């Protein structure tokens, strides 16, 4: 239970960070070309675009990842609390 809990604790955070930095690379490439990033369409535009947070754009990914991490933490705590047979 502890191993599975640790996997659930760490894996969602790594996935969220990977997706975040992938998008950040696209945003930076767009800005270096002199454009403005459209967060809703994930495209580079010539006119300034409003910032839309990642939580508003993909709430299932963010909230689901955090929920899985909390479940992993609880599983680790239960695994450390219970005695081995």
Question: What portion of residues is helical?
Answer: 55-70%
Silhouette: elongated
Query: Can you count the helices?
Result: 3
Widest β-sheet, arrangement of strands: 1-2
Find the structural class using helix and strand composition: mainly alpha
Report the mean per-residue pLDDT as an integer. Answer: 92
Which helices and strands occur, and which strands form pairs?
Elements: H1 2-32, E1 36-38, E2 43-45, H2 54-57, H3 59-81
Antiparallel strand pairs: 1-2
Describe the protein's architecture and organization.
This protein is mainly α. The chain is 68% helix and 7% strand. It is elongated.
Explain briefly what this protein structure is.
The protein has 85 residues and is mainly alpha-helical.
Tag the structure with descriptive keywords:
85 residues
